[in-house]
């Protein structure tokens, strides 16, 4: 499925002032490989805010996964989480909007997954917790406290913010190729890593669509957005923004499609671009 980019008709980059929104992915983008915000990046974000920009995290992470990062980055505004399915207020620790996958559609997606990937294991991100079936063997250390083991992810009355599909025998690229056409318009299918994990959201729910809605609420055009990302789930955001930058460490699909590139996450690639833009706007 080709990433959809709302607002592309209004992508002319502003050359007069500093962008009004800095939309950035976290893992592999803003964060170093150790999962931290470097001093240089923190300073660049501080300078961007001083120039009038709003920093918006646009991440696959659930809200619980962004609080520590927000503290490091000195961010207190809005985060777009769970690939666009959740809008989260960093200052109040409140989920202000949620766009879950319809349970019946999710069941149909699960059936398609099982046919194409017999060893698939399922989990559901609810926004605050993760429901996991026995075959879903992926464990993230800092998330273990939020896991709840269930016989079936469809037997619990919780919102399906993201349906997670894990295959121990395939890469995410291979999984995507195997199921994307079958799932079709039932859901949005993407991924944010190379391991065998797909992330599935409600139709039309993407990072870019939610960012577009946030921009419209603020009266901001796409041309006043600068964006950064590294994985296929970031691509629509990079295409939406007036200036979308792929990290040097980005997935080959992202590198091939993005108009701009910057240095890797471990080379402060986000900070390098922001410093340059700040210099031009001075």
From TrEMBL:
Top-rank lineage group of the source organism: Bacteria
InterPro entries (UniProt xref): Cof, HAD-like_sf, HAD-SF_hydro_IIB, HAD_sf
One Gene Ontology MF term: phosphatase activity
Q: Name one Pfam family in it.
A: Hydrolase_3
Q: Name one GO cellular component term.
A: cytosol
Name of the protein in question: Cof subfamily protein (Haloacid dehalogenase superfamily)/HAD superfamily hydrolase (TIGR01484 family)
Q: What is the lineage of its organism?
A: Bacteria, Bacillati, Actinomycetota, Actinomycetes, Streptosporangiales
């Amino acid at each position: 499925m080709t990433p959809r980019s709302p607002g592309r008709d209004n992508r002319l980059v502003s050359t007069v002032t500093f962008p009004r929104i800095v939309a950035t992915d976290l893992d592999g983008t803003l964060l170093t490989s150790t999962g931290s915000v470097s001093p240089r990046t923190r300073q660049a974000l501080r300078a961007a805010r001083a120039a009038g920009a709003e920093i918006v995290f646009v991440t696959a992470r659930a809200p619980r996964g962004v609080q520590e990062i927000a503290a490091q980055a000195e961010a207190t505004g809005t985060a777009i989480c769970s690939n666009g399915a959740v809008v989260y207020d960093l200052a109040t620790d409140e989920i202000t909007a949620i766009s879950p996958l319809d349970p019946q559609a999710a069941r149909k997606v699960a059936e398609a997954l099982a046919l194409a990937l017999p060893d698939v294991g399922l989990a559901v991100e609810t926004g605050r917790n993760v429901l996991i079936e026995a075959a879903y063997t992926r464990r993230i250390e800092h998330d273990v406290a939020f896991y709840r083991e269930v016989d079936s992810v469809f037997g619990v009355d919780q919102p399906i913010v993201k349906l997670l599909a894990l295959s121990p025998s395939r890469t995410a690229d291979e999984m995507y190729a195997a199921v994307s056409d079958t799932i079709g318009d039932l859901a949005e299918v993407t991924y944010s890593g190379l391991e065998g994990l797909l992330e599935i959201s409600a139709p039309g729910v993407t990072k870019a669509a939610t960012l577009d809605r946030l921009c419209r609420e603020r009266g901001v055009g796409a041309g006043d957005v600068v964006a950064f990302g590294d994985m296929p789930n970031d691509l629509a955001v990079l295409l939406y923004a007036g200036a979308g930058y792929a990290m040097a460490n980005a997935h080959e699909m992202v590198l091939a499609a993005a108009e701009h590139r910057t240095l890797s996450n471990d080379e402060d690639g986000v900070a390098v671009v922001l410093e340059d833009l700040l210099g031009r706007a001075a």
